[in-house]
Design a protein that fits this description.
The structure holds two protein chains of two kinds. By secondary structure, chain A is α+β, with helices and mostly antiparallel strands. Chain A contains five helices and five strands. The radius of gyration of chain A is 17 Å and the shape is globular. Chain B is of the alpha/beta class. Chain B folds into two domains: about 5-235, TIM Barrel; about 240-270, no CATH class. Chain B contains ten helices and nine strands. Chain B has helices at about 20-30, 95, 110-115, 140-145, 155-160, 160-180, 200-210, 215-220, 220-235, 260-270, and strands spanning about 5-15, 35-45, 75-85, 100-105, 125, 150-155, 185, 240-245, 255-260. In chain B, the strands form two sheets. A seven-stranded parallel β-sheet of chain B has the order 1-2-3-4-5-6-7. Classes of the chains: A alpha+beta, B alpha/beta. At the A-B interface, helix 2, strand 5 and helix 3 of A face helix 1, helix 5 and helix 7 of B. Chain B: This is Ribonuclease P protein subunit p30.
């Protein structure tokens, strides 16, 4: 049994304005990363990275992105990521940067990490709540979290939307 | 996330805009930096620029943001960078001593030599916005390494522009040829929150700069810590005795003199 081994880069897109994340789609991220690789490493670098390179997942609420590439050349891809300053999407330029959170060999390990990370983010955000009532509201929203009521909770608070990915 | 190492960014450009500075520091905390230094650049060649007292950090925030993955608030320091194009520009005055970290940016080879061998500084900046005007020679670089002075590469120019990226990488590589990855720190020099990058990304970026994996990681963590300790020794007498000024009303005996045990002293003296 031989399989092609991949590396999954779990990245976070950091933007100054959270609402601009809604503009992003997978194709825009794909184009931005490919452009960065080709400008940083030239034709040779983009050729190395193009094998099995894909944007596996994009969460437009938290800005989490999964990138996949071959295990042998993931560093070429990774070293190009810091040079991305903006992603062009639907005719608009969204200034942002990639923050690499985790590198994993399977999607599963990345997912495990992401759940832990998002829980941590929730704890960080809870500190910012002004009153106890607000805190309770968030907690209620988290407990009632399910895929069906996804739309409702988006309005309540971002940062925990994909705990049940 | 378990951050084993403590990440430090020693170069955040000072802006008078407090809101912006707060924003940058918040982003740095989010990315997992546990210490940042606000950089005040003084170019004595231009007009009548003077070295002023550092701004008080505590005015900046009511409550410092919590570092990602830790429960401690972020630590903010003051740093001074003096751009020297003449030897007379750099003098150790009381104003200079009030900064936590002091850096110089030598413009000529002679000054680079002087900065490496004799200036009382912690960091020597390497040009990133132009082609290095001189070669790095082995003796001054080795001298700097022996004295515990660090070389700084700032990556913000590399992010902004493709030409500057070439300069940054080529200057960094030519430095690495001489110092072999020792005593190098990589810092941001960010003027905007979106110019910062995460510590792991920087570690990987270090590979482009010709650092080995271990050296690249040290460049954002342990080497920066060494810089902080080196900066602290300026306030003390060779890092052995540390005096604290007490209130004039307090009794004389209370003047705190903290003597470090002999074992530690021997260690410090090698710095």
């Amino acid at each position: 049994m031989v399989r092609y081994k991949s590396r999954y880069l779990l990245c976070e897109l950091c933007v100054s304005d959270q609402s601009s994340l809604q503009l992003l789609d997978e194709r825009a991220v794909f184009a931005a990363v490919r452009g960065a690789v080709s400008s940083a490493h030239g034709d040779y670098g983009s050729a190395l990275c193009s094998a099995s390179f894909a944007v596996k997942y994009l969460n437009a609420h938290t800005g989490v992105v999964f990138l996949r590439c071959r295990k042998s050349h993931y560093r070429v891809l990774w070293s190009a990521l810091p040079f991305i300053t903006s992603v062009e999407s639907r005719g608009q330029r969204v200034p942002c940067f990639f923050n690499c959170l985790h590198i994993g060999g399977t999607i599963r390990t990345c997912q495990k990490f992401l759940i832990r990370y998002n829980t941590q983010q929730l704890h960080r955000m809870l500190r910012l709540c002004h009153s106890e009532a607000e805190r309770l509201e968030v907690r209620k929203a988290v407990l009632s979290c399910s895929l069906k009521s996804l739309e409702k909770e988006e309005e309540a608070e971002d940062g925990y939307g994909d705990e049940e990915v | 996330m378990v951050n084993m190492a403590v990440f430090i960014d020693l170069n955040i450009s000072y802006t008078a805009d407090t809101k912006k500075l707060q924003n940058i520091i918040e982003t740095a905390a989010h990315l997992g930096y546990s210490t940042v230094a606000i950089n005040h650049v003084v170019d004595l060649q231009q007009k009548k620029q003077e070295i002023g007292k550092p701004k008080c950090v505590s005015e900046l925030f009511d409550r410092l943001p919590i570092v990602q993955g830790k429960s401690r608030p972020i630590k903010v320091l003051n740093r001074l960078t003096v751009v020297v194009s003449e030897a007379s520009h750099f003098r150790t005055t009381n104003e200079v001593k009030s900064y936590d970290i002091v850096a110089v940016f030598p413009k000529t080879e002679k000054l680079f030599h002087a900065a490496c061998m004799s200036f009382d500084v912690d960091i020597i900046c390497i040009a990133v916005t132009e082609k290095q005007p001189f070669y790095f020679k082995r003796p001054p670089v080795n001298g700097a390494i022996d004295r515990g002075v660090f070389f700084e590469i700032s990556y913000v120019a590399a992010i902004k522009d493709s030409t500057l990226r070439r300069y940054t990488i080529s200057n960094a590589l030519s430095l690495m040829e001489t110092c072999k990855g020792k005593n190098v720190i990589v810092s941001s020099g960010a003027e905007k929150p979106l110019e910062l990058r995460g510590p792991y990304d920087i570690t990987n970026l270090g590979l482009l700069f010709g650092l080995s994996e271990g050296d690249a990681k040290a460049a954002v963590s342990t080497n920066c810590r060494a810089v902080l300790l080196h900066g602290e020794t300026r306030k003390t007498a060779l890092g052995i005795i540390h005096t604290v000024k007490t209130q004039p009303t307090a009794e004389r005996q209370e003047e705190e003199e903290e003597a470090v045990p002999a074992v530690k002293r021997a260690k410090r003296e090698t710095l």
